[in-house]
């Protein structure tokens, strides 16, 4: 059972939060459309625990992606993970529903081997199979149809291929509260499963037991003290 309580918020400098108070809270897709990801990826906004987590993800991908792989990243944002390992990839495809991120990903990637598609992670318009499907940086924890995303990842990288989720654990709450505050999205509601910010951004975190109940058969490894890597 989810515990939930509200928290008084301070002043909100960011325009997204100002918009939300005028029109009611925004949804996650509207918050992303207002550019949250670009500010969040600026290391200056990141508490040290978050920076360590982002670095641990990169090291994990570095040890997983081998030469010649075909990789699909759902909720790819501006495509940073695929871009980092592009020289090893036979094919890299990123999918994100925020078109401005996809445009930026294409601009950064150049022409060869990487492709970025604007689309929903629950209905990816691709029939091909990949060696690896990823959903990084708690992207899955911001998605509403979690089972739909897992089903698409299973379809796109069927066993014995690899599917990876990287998600926040409960120990992430304090550094995330600080990070979101720095991003102009102070947390106004906290529960045992999620944080909700004044700007309307909702981000979940997970216990191992909840991950097993949502994902089913999987391997779960702690990541950087505040997160989990899930192989399913
Ligand atoms: C936390 S950001 C991470 C982006 C990227 N993976 C990274 O680590 O830089 C989550 C991303 O997922 C995208 N997203 C959220 N829900 C989505 C969905 N249902 N389908 C496609 N993209 C989605 C957002 O637009 C955003 O770019």
Instruction: State the separation between the terminal residues, measured CA to CA.
Output: 24 Å
Per CATH, the superfamily is Vaccinia Virus protein VP39
What's the count of strands?
11
Helical/strand content category: alpha/beta
Q: In this structure, how is the largest beta sheet organized?
A: 7 strands, mixed
CATH topology: Rossmann fold
In percent, how much strand structure appears in the residues?
Answer: 15-25%
Q: Total number of helical segments? A: 9
Q: CATH top level?
A: Alpha Beta
- Taken from the alpha-carbon principal axes, the silhouette is globular
- What CATH architecture would you give? 3-Layer(aba) Sandwich
Please list the strands of the largest sheet in the order they lie side by side: 4-3-2-5-6-11-10
Counted up, domains total 1
Helix content: 25-40%
What is the CA-based Rg, rounded?
Answer: 17 Å
> Ions, cofactors, ligands: which are bound?
S-adenosylmethionine
Let me know the average pLDDT.
90
Outline the structure in words.
The chain has 232 residues and is an alpha/beta fold. The protein is built from nine helices and eleven strands. The chain has a single domain (27-120, 127-231), classed as Rossmann fold, CATH 3.40.50.150. It has helices at residues 15-23, 28-33, 36-40, 48-64, 80-84, 99-109, 146-156, 173-182, 208-215, and strands spanning 4-6, 69-74, 89-96, 114-118, 132-135, 162-168, 187-191, 194-197, 202-204, 219-223, 227-231. The strands form two sheets. Strands 4-3-2-5-6-11-10 form a seven-stranded mixed β-sheet, with helices on both faces. Strands 1-7-8-9 form a four-stranded antiparallel β-sheet. Mean pLDDT is 90; it is low at 1-21.
């Amino acid at each position: 059972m989810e515990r939930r309580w509200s928290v008084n918020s301070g002043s909100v400098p960011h325009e997204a939060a100002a918009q939300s108070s005028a029109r009611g809270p925004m949804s996650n897709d509207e918050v992303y459309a207002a550019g949250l990801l670009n500010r969040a990826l600026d290391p200056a906004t990141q508490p040290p625990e978050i920076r360590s987590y982002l670095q641990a993800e990169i090291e994990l991908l570095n040890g997983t992606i081998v030469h010649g792989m075909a990789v699909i990243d759902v909720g790819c944002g501006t495509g940073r993970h695929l871009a980092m390992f592009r020289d090893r990839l036979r094919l890299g495809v990123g999918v994100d529903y925020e078109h401005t991120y996809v445009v930026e990903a294409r601009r950064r990637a150049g022409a060869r081997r990487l492709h970025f598609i604007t689309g929903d992670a629950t209905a990816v318009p691709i029939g091909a199979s990949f060696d690896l499907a990823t959903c990084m940086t708690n992207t899955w924890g911001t998605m509403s149809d979690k089972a739909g995303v897992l089903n698409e990842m299973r379809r796109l990288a069927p066993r014995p291929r690899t599917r990876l989720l990287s998600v926040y654990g409960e120990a992430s709450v304090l550094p995330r509260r600080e990070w979101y505050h720095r991003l102009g999205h102070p947390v106004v509601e906290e529960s045992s499963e999620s944080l909700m910010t004044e700007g309307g951004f909702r981000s979940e975190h997970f216990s191992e037991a909840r991950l097993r109940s949502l994902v089913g058969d999987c391997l779960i490894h702690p990541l950087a003290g505040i997160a989990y890597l899930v192989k399913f």
